[in-house]
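Saturday, quiet lab. Running sequence design on the structure tokens for the scaffold JK sent over.
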């Protein structure tokens, strides 16, 4: 299956009502995984294939105007059910998310008072851990597929990376 984003409303040029859908490659059958009045984007399969994660809003966006709310990370079983907002309690716009190799966590960055920190959220409990703190910014990160190591690029207003 391939997961994709589509706006299937009567006037898709006039709203942000995107949903996550899948297409079965052998049959071409399309299935709606989400059916919310809001916007969903950036779907990603869990490594074990059981879930789809995506970024999305918490309320309907009824116009094509820019979305001014925080994007959250949601998960939904691959066959579709009610989505679960994993990062709603954080009250930050999440970015750059990726699954841990064991499908137990989703790592992401979020801005806070001019800094960009690295977090992870447990898929089973929804507990969020802040992995990088302080007056610094994580510019990018990578996860090891073998031992759980996280490598990240860090800068601050006092140290600038050599480019």
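Result came back. Writing it out in full:
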């Amino acid at each position: 299956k391939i997961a994709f984003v589509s706006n299937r409303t009567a006037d898709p040029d006039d709203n942000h009502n995107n949903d996550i859908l899948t297409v079965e490659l052998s049959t071409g059958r399309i299935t709606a995984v989400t059916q919310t009045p809001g916007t969903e984007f950036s779907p990603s399969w869990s490594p074990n294939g059981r879930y789809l994660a995506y970024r999305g809003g918490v309320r309907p966006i009824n116009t094509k105007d820019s979305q001014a709310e925080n994007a959250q990370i949601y998960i939904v079983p691959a066959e579709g059910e009610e989505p679960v907002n994993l990062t709603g309690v954080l009250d930050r716009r999440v970015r750059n998310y990726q699954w841990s190799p064991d499908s137990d966590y989703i790592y992401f960055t979020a801005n806070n008072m001019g800094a960009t920190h690295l977090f992870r959220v447990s898929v089973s409990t929804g507990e969020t851990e802040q992995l990088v703190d302080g007056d610094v910014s994580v510019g990018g990160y990578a996860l090891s597929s073998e031992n759980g190591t996280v490598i990240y690029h860090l800068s601050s207003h006092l140290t600038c990376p050599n480019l």
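Notes for JK: The longest strand covers residues 105-112. The mean pLDDT is 86. Ask whether to fix the surface positions before the next round.
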